[in-house]
Amino acid sequence: MLKRILCPVILMFALVLSLCVQAYAADFEAIEELIHTKEVSKIQEAIDRLETHLEGKPEDGDALWLIAKAYLYLGDRLDDHKEETFETGKAYAESAVEFLPTSPHPYFWQASLTGRIGQTRGILSSLFMVRPMKDALDQALELDEDYADAHWALSQLYHQAPGFPLSIGNKKLALQHAERAVELDPKNLDYQIQLAVALEYNGRKGEAILILEDLLANPALRQEPELKTQVAEHYADFTK
Questions:
Q1: What integer best gives the mean pLDDT of the chain?
Q2: Superfamily of domain 39-145, CATH level 4
Q3: In terms of pTM, does the model score above 0.85?
């Protein structure tokens, strides 16, 4: 009799636990959607929700890298306190690396925020940031060789950094990583823009212009005003 009573109770508990896990995952998904709106008020809402979550679970690696991402998106859209905002995000990313060392996400956002800090401080600081950025991105790819964001970021790094002997700038590697990112996610607008930039960097301006023309005709670009501006600027520059 006791066994008959306990079985339904156990099954009910398992069901409730499963629903709680699903709700938890859905909450993170909803928070990431707030970040992707690129609206300051909604990004701040995402940060507030994550900070509340982290008060109870300070070692939650997924929440830590997600809030690091939120601070990067926020800093990109602020006129003041940019460096402070990026520094806060980087601290969260470093904690994420500590508590979630087998995931590529913390390393990617650590690298991205390191780069933003360097850009904010100026060219000399940016040069000192190149190596730690590359190391973090390499680690992300070591954990997941198909991590498209890391290929995209490495393409930018190889394109923007000075070449030898000052730094690691490399035209060939900039193009290889851009091509790999697009191969992994052909519809990603950021990746396509970077591929056009890398092609032009390698003297293949005609191919770059064709990609930009396709992007300008892509209805998805109309929903991304920041990216649309980038495409228009590159197109104007490449077709001078």
A1: 91
A2: Tetratricopeptide repeat domain (1.25.40.10)
A3: yes
